Amino acid sequence: MPIKDKKIYKGNYKRYDGKRIYVVTEVVDVDTGVEMVLFKDNNRASRNDYHICTKESFCQMVTKKTTIGEKLVDKYTRENNHKTPLRQFDELKEDGFSLTSPEKKQLKEAMGSFFDDERFYRDSENYYDYAKELCKYYREDTDMISLCNKEKKYIIVKEEYDMINEDCTFVKRCLDTVMKEHKEFFKVRFYDGNSIRNTAQTMGKSKGSIEYAEKKLYAALAKLLEDRDKSDGNCRLAYSID
Question: E strands of 55-129, at which residues?
Answer without folding.
Answer: 61-66, 69-74, 76-78
